[in-house]
Amino acid sequence: MLTLDNLYKEFKTEGKDVRAVNHISLNVPEGNFFTLLGPSGCGKTTTLRCIAGLERPNSGKIILDGVVVSNDDYFMPPDKRNIGMVFQSYAIWPHMDVFANVAFPLKVSKTKYTNKDIGNRVMEALHTVQLDGLEKRPATWLSGGQQQRLALARALVGHPKLLLLDEPLSNLDAILREDMRLELRQMQQRLGITTVYVTHDQLEALALSDTIAVMNGGVVEQLGSPKEIYQNPASRFIAGFIGSTNWLEGKVVGVEGMVVHVDTNIGKASSTMSYSCKYGDNVTLSIRPEAILVETSRPEGTRYCEAKVESVMFLGEYIDCYLRIGEQVLRVKTHPQLQIKAGDKVYVRLLADYCIALPS
Amino acid sequence: MKFFSFRYLGMLILLVTVGYLTIYPLGMIIYGSFRSAAPGLPGHFTLSGYIQAFSDHGIVKALYNTFTLSIARTLLSSILAVFFCWILIRTDTPFKGTLEVLMWINFFIPILPMTMGWILLLDPSYGLINQWLKKLPFITGPVFNIYSYWGIVWAHMAFSTSVRVLMFAPAFRNMDASLEESARMSGANNITTLIRITFPLLMPAIVGSTIFGFIKSLESFEVELLLGIPIKFYVFSTKLYDLLRWEPPQYPPAMAMSVVFMVFIIGMVFLNRWIIQRRQYTTVSGKGYRTAVIKLGKWKYVTLAFVILYAVVFLILPASMLVVGTFMKISGMFLPNPYTLEHWKGVLSDPLFIRSTVNSLIVCISAALVGMTFYSFISYITVRTKLSGRGMLDFMSWLPWAVPGLLLAMGLLWVFLGGIPIFKMLYGTIYILIIAMVVSQLPMGVRVMDGTMVQINRELEESARMSGASWFTTFRKIMMPLLIPTYVSTAVIIFLGAIRDIAIVVLLYTPKSRVLSILMLEHYIGMSPEKGMVVGVIITLICIVVAITARAVGIRLGGMSRADG
To answer: pLDDT tier at B192 (50, 70, 90 boundaries)?
Structure first.
């Protein structure tokens, strides 16, 4: 549905050239919820704006639904691309009411719509986002969440082939954000519209997407489903960026088929998820806080090591604690029934299946 | 670019147009200073213009006078303005609101009519105050003489002070009260806090505005025309005017003098920027600062008295004298039965007056409408696009600000006479006046538009593009509606600046295109000063009515027009 081929965009600021989008190629299938995820400055918004036509790439090709909209000789302006876009600030026009805002794309389009058509389609769009009944209201009288829906309705009213969303949930409060996340996902699946979503919030990306492209410094570091990215991060950056994690430095002391044994400063750890390590390699183990088992009495077997509880936070759904083993401090999220307090001695085990060995 | 684009064509047209109206006039002046005759006439390159300019004592003296006058005016009005700002914004002086309105109104009152009022009061032979004082036993001669260096300073005082007040006010308003409060907590009383904390913190903003005002005051023309010429006290503008009124006009020394003057001004502009950049005082902290009001106790009646005294002396006195003067047979002479309506009747029934009023309205309204549209394009391009060439556009949009009104008019005159034939046809018509007004107010107008342009979130435009609207449709349906308040306030400011302008029109008008301000001058300097005063009162009334209506309707008029400082 959407293909980016070797897309390159740089900006010139004083002295330095910033390579915002550094030769990116990717393909978004039809109906896919595709997220560009990364920290500020990684190039995700610039990529989105290139797709939209709000920035002109220096080189590379963009093909939308079989039509080349941008390459070295040709640039289709944004108003001709039939793309719906929701901006971070919603960009609701303050001098129009709700109806006029949503009707705008139909009023300015090349196809002539009768007033009746426009009325029907606007009401349909408002219904999709659950803003029925508010047509006459001045746009500035809407709450944040309502404005966001309005922006969505306006983006969808023209039945676009592609929907672009630029961090649309970042201006909402936490509870509203969660609700909208769910609604957004359900709506997208219902309509089956190809969607490209930009965010720096990894939780959002994991919750909403069919495919995530993790970006850093203008390149796509990893492309995959949320589960793949979360469980098999391809680099230290990705592992750190997607959810919190613990880092253990170590050296490979044994390789048995899929299993890699690593000697770390807290003892021997094993990993079944590794990236072609060899004996003697320096690796960094990434282990998620929720993948560490904690027991208050020493269990059988040698797979546990001793730790001292440094701090505990009871967060209702889980316990967030820091456990010290010698020089190393591990952050652990464990079930809320565990009775521990600072100073206690506990026993931890790292689950090999969730321990990822990354090259140092 | 790889393909032809309307954007670039539009940019080119705009650059050429603005350049033609800003750089070309300046170029002509510089060129003319090195020629033996006026541009367009046969002549040769020579430095005789410069030699004449500096061997003729008149010119050097005129330049000297200009600077000393501006220094005195600027210093005095700045000191007063600081006091007023402090009183009106930071203390609990009663009736602050009314006083602030008076200050604000003062800004819109044309200065020439007020000067006429002062002449009625302080003329050495006929001035009312002098006559009353003569009645005292120990007074033998006239006490005050408005036709003097200090007379000129005095006449400027009211207007200059209110301009400064408007310029300093934001700095005063934005001061974080806790800075002063901590001084009080440390044991300083009101006066000490004022001197050691408040004023030093405000220095950068004040200094910047003051230098700006100083530069603008150098171009002053009308008051010096009335008060300086009779005593052969010339400043730059009046000297320039004088040289151009010779038969034949003395272009070379006039141009040479202008070039030298402009060099000074540009030097001051750079000095100003250098000073502003040197110090960084942040008196506005991030979140939650308050502007607290200092309680003066009994002293607030003193400050109130001070402000009232100022208002009476500088505003009410000359204004009422002016108005009264228009109803007297010979203004200033309290003969038996002195009052009459004949001057008013004479003016209002005069077809010349009708013609001039019509011309004024056409010129000023057209300038306002053309100006606001033109300025919005320039502002949009420099602020909201990334088109190459906008840096040049921005630079050119600043140029007219550094050029004294009279000089700008002269430069434009030559552009019109010497250039494209279409413009030659416009010479002597009101169209030239309109163009000149639009050019002279360009720097101010673009800045006023800039203020709002930057505030409109660009995503409002982008979402329109994404919704399928072309650039032009977006500008029409999204930008323009959002800019309406700014369009209106810019138009009002342009109108008010244009209707009382004399420096620009005095070189460009002909009997066909005479406007009200020129009529006023012609009457006053010519056969009937009383009629001149009547026209002056009428112009003042127009300004006051427009300003008050705009304010009542909610239009913000905080910007400065092209006014002498």
So the answer is: confident
Contacts of B463 in chain A (CB under 8 A): 85, 87, 91, 93, 151, 154
Give the side-chain half-sphere CA count within 13 A for B307.
Answer: 28
Q: Which fold has domain A2-240?
A: Rossmann fold (3.40.50)
The confidence score (pLDDT) of residue B2 equals 38
Across A35-47, average pLDDT: 92
Q: Is any Cβ of chain A less than 8 angstroms from the Cβ of B2?
A: yes
The complex scores an ipTM of 0.71
The architecture CATH gives domain A244-359: Beta Barrel (2.40)
pLDDT, mean of residues B418-447: 84
Question: Residue with structure tokens 């088929």?
Answer: A257
Confidence (pTM): 0.76
| Residue boundaries of the structural domains of chain A | 2-240, 244-359
Instruction: Return the bridge partners of A324, or none.
Output: A308, A329
Chain A closest CA to B452's CA: distance in Å? 15
- For residues B446 and B401, the answer to whether their CB atoms sit within 8 Å is no
Interface of B with A in 32-51 (CB under 8 A): none
The Cα A318–Cα A333 span in angstroms is 6
Q: Cα separations (Å) of A47 from A62, A69, A71, A76, B467?
A: 11, 14, 14, 16, 19
Q: What pLDDT is recorded for position B231?
A: 92
Mutate which of B467, B477, B480, B483 to disrupt the A interface (most A C-beta within 10 Å)?
B467
Check CB contact under 8 Å for A77 and B470.
yes
**Six-digit token pair at B174?**
């934005």
b/e burial code for range B461-480 (CB count within 10 A of at least 16 → b): bbbbbbbbbebebbbebbbe
Determine the distance in angstroms separating the CA of B551 from the nearest CA of chain A, rounded to an integer. Answer: 22
B130-138 own/partner pairs: CB under 8 Å, 24+ apart: none
Domains and CATH numbers, chain B: 1-23+341-565 (1.10.3720.10), 56-340 (1.10.3720.10)
Q: What is the mean pLDDT of residues A68-94?
A: 90
Pinpoint the alpha helices (H) of A32-173: 44-52, 98-108, 115-128, 144-156
User: CA-CA distances (angstroms) from residue B425 to A51, B90, B378?
Assistant: 52, 56, 27
- Say what percent of chain B tops pLDDT 90: 33
Substitution target in A106, A108, A161 with the highest count of B β-carbons within 10 Å is: A108
For residue A94, give the chain B residue with the closest CA: B482
Q: How far is B350 from B357, CA to CA, in rounded Å?
A: 11
Coil, strand or helix at B265: helix
**Which B residues, 477 through 506, put their C-beta within 8 Å of a C-beta on chain A?**
477-478, 481-482
- How near does any CA of chain A get to the CA of B433, in Å? 36
* Per-residue model confidence (pLDDT) at position B285: 44
Q: Do domains A2-240 and A244-359 have the same CATH topology?
A: no
Tens of pLDDT, residue by residue over A268-278, are: 888 876 666 78
Q: Give the DSSP per-residue string, B409-444.
A: HHHHHHHHHHS-HHHHHHTTSHHHHHHHHHHHTHHH
pLDDT of residue B561: 34
> Hey, are the CB atoms on B465 and A158 less than 8 Å from each other?
no
**B387-409 average pLDDT score:** 86
Contacts 24+ apart (CB under 8 A), B134-140: none
